[in-house]
Amino acid sequence: MKIVDLSLPIDDTAFEVHNLSIERISHKEGIKKFNRLIMSKTFLGKIKYLLGKRIIKEDELPDKEFLSLEIVHSPVHIGTHIDSLYHYGSYCQGEPSLMSEDIPLELCYQDGVKIDVSYKRPLELITAFDIEDYLKKINYKLKPLDIVLFYTGSDKLFGTKKYFTDYPAIDISSIDYLLDRGVIIFGIDTMGIDLPYKHMLKKYLETKDINLFYPAHFYGRKRKFFHLERLANLEGLPSFGFKVICFPVKIKKTGASWVRAVAIL
Question: At the N or C end, where does the chain have fewer CB atoms within 10 A?
Fold first, then answer.
């Protein structure tokens, strides 16, 4: 058995359009934080802390170290993640949209299929024809619940500004093609399934055509699907014959959730 990591990290050193920070408290700093937090729970404790009293002293700890602690301040759309129906809108097909904690887990462990569209240039659309043409080449017929992964190679731009500007997008015809064949989860190795937001915004402001603004995401109000964004390392996968695991982290009331997506060969 071989496991291929399909996930990008939450990396506070990489370029991001949203604010991201990771507070790292070292083993040495941990004992200071522990004493301050515990003692500040009461007024008397605060006074004692200010006067220099400590519950636990550094010399009393093994190796004079406490436990480390990292605090991540990050949107759920940074790092490899899965978007749920609530992200697309409050309703899907007339019913309240499912949040990330509601995604059926059985959908997140299924056979995987890789669609190689690495020939697509930035700002081009991946259409139903591209899917059908590739499936004919590999002699594969999609079945219900397959997890389809679109390989563009854009993950190699992660950490740069081009990661947010130079990638192809999913056309609605592709979504219909997949859903009509029982596929509910699909993913891509770009930062989103729609065209780069600056390009979409520019086109909308020029034309006032709202259909050009996040069309794939808004389509999730009309038809039910979940999708993975910011995948990686898809070049290491065969076209089919592998399992995908993409269980969402259980976070209350969110429209997306981080996943550690992997493929099992």
Answer: N
